[in-house]
Structure formats: structure tokens, C-alpha cells
UniProtKB/TrEMBL annotation:
Domain (Transglycosylase SLT): residue spans on this chain: 46-155
Biological processes annotated in GO: peptidoglycan metabolic process
Family: Belongs to the transglycosylase Slt family.
Any Pfam family: SLT
PROSITE patterns: TRANSGLYCOSYLASE
Protein's recorded name: Soluble lytic murein transglycosylase
Entries under Gene3D superfamilies matching the protein: 1.10.530.10
Record InterPro entries: Lysozyme-like_dom_sf (IPR023346), Transglyc_AS (IPR000189), Transglycosylase_SLT_dom_1 (IPR008258)
GO MF terms, alphabetically ordered: peptidoglycan lytic transglycosylase activity
Length: 188
């Protein structure tokens, strides 16, 4: 059995009171908006409109990839806000006909968001499903194509019943959660 001493009881009552006040005043939504911000929204909205991608989806990806830090480099070498690998960056640059492209441009928030949003559109055109797009963004489009062909991972060849890479599975669930939260907080 669990017993609280006087100090513990006071702390518990105080914490409960704070939670109730936050809930009653709507302050909890303010706190959640601080955790799920709309950073770089001018770029996100611009390129989301251009490439016809839900801006809240872009925010959800950025939140999971870099937590909005433009200078982040992953252990696999992915760069910037949307964690684009140099190889993918060069491919996107060639598709978008960016003649003077170099990998350091991925540290620039506008360039990174533009390229990442274009890539989400490209994956959306191929897969047409948010979950598949997220899995391909993280685990690679070739892997998702193979998983869809394998009855072990996809019964119908159009949806993934399970994702064999644990990291990609966790990432996909995190982005879906982020996306749901962004839509709940900001969609009108």
C-alpha cells in the first residue's frame, strides 16, 4: 500500500490544483502549442501550397526529424529541419533543376523545407497514403515498395499491416501522432 507523508500530500494537492487551473483556463492548449509550434511557417505554408501538401503534415515531419533545429546532422548524415541526406538532396536538386546546389544548402531552412516538402509530394504521388509516405520518408521508398509486395507485411499490396524496421515503425507512429496533434491544435 502507498502512503504519502504530509509534504508529499501537499505537493500532490498543489500539482492537482495547477492541472485543474490549466484545464479550466485553456492554458493547457497554450502549453501544448509551445511543444508543437508552427516554426518556419512562412516557408512551410509557401511550399505546402506550391506542392499541395498539408502544412500540418510538414510540421509533423519536422517535429519528428529535427524538433525544428536547422543545424542538426544525424548519425547517418541527414541534414537540417527535415533531415534530408546529401544523396537525396542532390537527387531532389536535379529533379528541381537547382543548378548551383551544394549539400551545405540543406542547412538553410527555406531550402530544406522546400526540398523536403517537394519530396513528400513525390512520395505522396507514388504511394497515395500518409502512413506509406511516412514509412518511405524514413525507411526508404524502395523498402516500402518491397514490403508492399511481401504478404508477410502487406495482405493487399496497398497497405502495410506491419513495418519490419522497428525504427521506421516507431517513427511512423510518432509522425502520425504529431500530425493528429497539429491538426487538432491548428486546423480550422
Amino acid at each position: 500500500m502507498f502512503f504519502l507523508n504530509k509534504k508529499g500530500l501537499i505537493i500532490l494537492i498543489f500539482a492537482f490544483t495547477v492541472i485543474v487551473i490549466l484545464a479550466l483556463t485553456g492554458a493547457s492548449k497554450i502549453i501544448v502549442k509551445h511543444i508543437y509550434p508552427l516554426k518556419y511557417k512562412e516557408y512551410v505554408y509557401t511550399y505546402s501550397m506550391e506542392y499541395k501538401i498539408d502544412p500540418f503534415f510538414v510540421f509533423a515531419i519536422m517535429k519528428a526529424e529535427s524538433n525544428f533545429r536547422p543545424d542538426v546532422v544525424s548519425r547517418k548524415g541527414a541534414i537540417g529541419l527535415m533531415q534530408i541526406t546529401p544523396e537525396t538532396g542532390r537527387w531532389i536538386a536535379s529533379e528541381l533543376k537547382i543548378a548551383d546546389y551544394n549539400d551545405n544548402m540543406l542547412f538553410d531552412p527555406e531550402t530544406n523545407i522546400m526540398m523536403g516538402t517537394w519530396y513528400l509530394r513525390n512520395l505522396s504521388d507514388e504511394f497515395g497514403d500518409v502512413k506509406l509516405v511516412i514509412a518511405a520518408y524514413n525507411g526508404g521508398r524502395g523498402n516500402v515498395e518491397e514490403w508492399l509486395k511481401n504478404k508477410k507485411y502487406s495482405k493487399d499490396g496497398r497497405n502495410l499491416d506491419n513495418i519490419p524496421y522497428l525504427e521506421t515503425d516507431i517513427y511512423t507512429q510518432r509522425v502520425l501522432k504529431n500530425y493528429k496533434i497539429y491538426r487538432a491544435l491548428y486546423a480550422k
